[in-house]
Specification:
single chain, 301 residues, alpha/beta, Arc Repressor Mutant, subunit A, Rossmann fold, 9% strand
Length: 301
């Protein structure tokens, strides 16, 4: 069995579009002192770009050693490169998303309904844009090949991620493929134990650390099935249990962690996967879509 991961292809730090993505992806593995640095950079990138290492360390109540360790961890060799990319990325976002950036941050108790709409739109739009930037096309091609040749595709996720798996099941069924999505962990594990090398198991988890979801993929792999993970963190336990990892770059907020930016980013990946599978068998997929549409249309008229 081979392993393909969105993190196998190293993103060059000189691409300023990826610095925020790198910082978010690194968060689970950071020490508390480094996490404070990451949170400050994400919250105030333009301000951070004007600080020296010593000033940044002071603002984050940590040491210059922690700052150096932090930027080395996310792939930079010099602090001036971090400052330059922070400036470039903050400027780019301000220009490209000017209409969305009139309101920013997490949902506040005093927000108006218009503020809520603006903040949700901003986070979801930027989650899609960031995911499009980091999604590894090679890993996506591997996932498409596995799904295309699979006798059966089983998917599982917990909470908001379960809705993403259900969406994939419905899409694949529309083009005549056998796809199952499981509503609870025990049913998912039971199904995974019956899979074989002709099957594919797809697990969805923003954190990549949801134990029930990780166990589903591990059982499927032990049964011989090919395994695909959709997660925000390429070094997570879920990614370690997968043959192919499709990484998202969701912008989560504390108010609804796991259900806003992550879901929309995951759905984008699912749409890319489904569309590519349908395109690979274009004539058969179009014929199946026509038949399934006609069946539903007749029942509703």
């Amino acid at each position: 069995m081979y392993k393909s991961s969105g993190y196998d292809r190293q993103i060059e730090p000189t691409d300023s579009r990826t610095i925020m993505v790198r910082i978010r992806a690194a968060m689970p593995a950071l020490r508390p002192s480094e996490r404070r640095i990451a949170e400050f950079l994400l919250a105030q990138p333009m301000d951070a770009a004007t600080l020296t290492i010593a000033e940044l360390a002071s603002r984050c109540d940590t040491s210059t050693t922690s700052v150096v360790r932090f930027y080395t961890h996310i792939g930079y060799r010099q602090f001036k490169e971090v400052r330059l990319d922070l400036t470039r990325e903050a400027t780019r976002e301000n220009v490209e998303n000017a209409d969305l950036l009139t309101v920013s941050g997490d949902i506040d108790r005093d927000d108006s309904l218009a503020d809520i709409v603006a903040k949700v739109a901003r986070n979801e739009t930027l989650s899609i844009a960031d995911t499009a930037t980091v999604l590894d096309v090679g890993a996506l091609a591997d996932a498409v090949a596995l799904v295309q040749s699979a006798r059966r595709v089983d998917s599982f996720g917990v909470g908001a991620s379960s809705l993403v798996g259900l969406d994939l099941q419905q899409k694949l069924t529309r083009i005549g493929r056998t796809a199952l999505n499981w509503p609870d962990a025990h049913a998912a594990w039971t199904s995974a134990a019956t899979l074989d090398p002709s099957c594919v198991a797809i697990a969805v988890s923003h954190s990549g650390g949801t134990i029930d979801t990780v166990d589903f993929l591990r059982i499927a792999r032990e049964s011989g099935a090919a395994t695909i993970a959709i997660t925000n963190f390429g070094t997570s336990p879920l990614a370690a249990a997968a043959d192919v990892v499709l990484t998202t770059a969701a912008r989560e907020t504390p108010f609804r962690s796991g259900a806003l930016g992550s879901r929309i980013a995951q759905l984008m990946v699912i749409d890319c996967l489904f569309t590519a599978v349908a395109q690979a068998t274009y004539e058969e997929s179009i014929a199946a879509l026509r038949v399934t549409y006609a069946a539903v249309h007749r029942r509703n008229t």
